Amino acid sequence: MKVLQVIDTLGMGGAETWLMDMLRLWSRSGDVQMDFLITSGNRGIFDDEARELGAQIHYARFGRPHLLSFVPEYRRILARGYRAIHDHQAYVSGWHFLLGAGLLPSVRVAHVHNPEYQILNNYGVTPSRRLAAWLGKDFVGRFATHIAGTSREAIEAYGFNAPAFRHIPTGVLHCGIKTGRFIGDEKAAKAAVCDEFGWPRDARIIVNVGRIDQSADFGHPQSHKNTGFAVAVAIEYARTDLRARMIFAGEPSPAVAVLEARIAEAGLSGRIVFVGIRHDVSRLILGSDVMLFPSHGEGLGMVAVEAQAAGLPVIASTNVPEECVVIPGMVTFLEVTGDPVPWAAEAARVAERGRKDNASCNAAVRDSPFSIEYSARALRELYFQPNPPESFVRGGTAPHGRKD
Fold it and tell me: Residues 256, 257, 263, 266: is their CA dihedral positive or negative?
């Protein structure tokens, strides 16, 4: 049973991490042969492992300047014969389906991962891009057999709950995580983290996981993760508590130099650190006291789910869908107003309160639709059953965006 996953790059994002966990699971069970079409044409951090696990990776750069090379290569790939194509690029999925017409598999899934914030800033820049998005959306309605979203909010923001899409089964399909990564000795993890950075063992550690924004300015259109604001919160917290420390783990950007200059100006170099892409994010989460998640928008926010699986409390912006809450009381939502003081005060309060029991929190996430095992069942049903699978609906929404 072969499935083609269409993504930009096999990087460290939430969707890519989920797909790699699915590949690891299915490479052992033999249930599904998963291949990848990389539309950026770029190599990613997981490419070598994916090949070792049996996946074929096809690189075909998509975009108007590359259509003459993309189309024949894409159609050659489809001609290999797949049961399903699962496209993770929202409106662009429709263009991919159009260009593959006549060779498309019987199951064609368009999956929305990104938030409305990115729709406005990525698709609403020029008239030509707005037209391309509108046409792509129309092509999704013509060609897709299923539409999935990481949350109800994402489905509604993209307009896929509208009457024009009523004929297509539409539902929430969460990215799953391998919960076993987040079981461990929190005290030992914290000691190791403190030793790595030369911090005292009683440090109060905030962690932020995700790529660093291209801009350090709070209101910039490319300040999706709101990194600049998170730095301001850490500076404010550190001014009131000598134990305060913060870790930013994620792909760096040119904004890091600007943000490090702000940290140095506040006299806090070494107490607020950017550590780049890490393969031990679970250890950083286990060793921290609170996760800060002040994004301007999220399709769901899987790092908040990972934090809950480790028993780590989360402070998130109200722009993060409430569907990320697996365990009641573990996620606090605050407005992002530009004032870091309330966030710093809440971080201090939550850090002082302490973490929840690791084992019980992990078990709760393992028994939720966010586990990799649940994802495997839901995806297999989605790909190989003729009717909309019950687990697809149970994932969070009934067809056309209505709650169960």
Answer: negative
pTM metric for this prediction: 0.89
Walk across the sheet containing 170-172 and list its strands. 57-59, 33-38, 2-7, 84-87, 107-112, 146-149, 170-172
CB 288 within 8 A of CB 160: no
CA separation for the pair 308, 328 (Å, rounded): 10
Q: How does pLDDT run across 248-284, given as a tens digit for each residue?
A: 999 999 999 999 999 999 999 999 999 999 999 999 9
**What is the 8-class DSSP label of residue 1?**
-
Q: Cα separation of 301 and 280, whole Å?
A: 19
Task: Establish how many alpha carbons lie within 13 A of residue 388's alpha carbon, considering only the half-sphere containing its beta carbon.
Answer: 21
Q: How many CB atoms lie within 10 A of CB 300?
A: 27
- Residue of 170, 102, 64, 130 whose CA lies nearest to 388: 170
Cβ contact 183:359 at 8 Å: yes
The candidate with the shortest Cα–Cα distance to 299, out of 165, 156, 401, is 156
The torsion defined by the Cα of 232, 306, 212 and 89, in degrees rounded to 10, comes to: -140
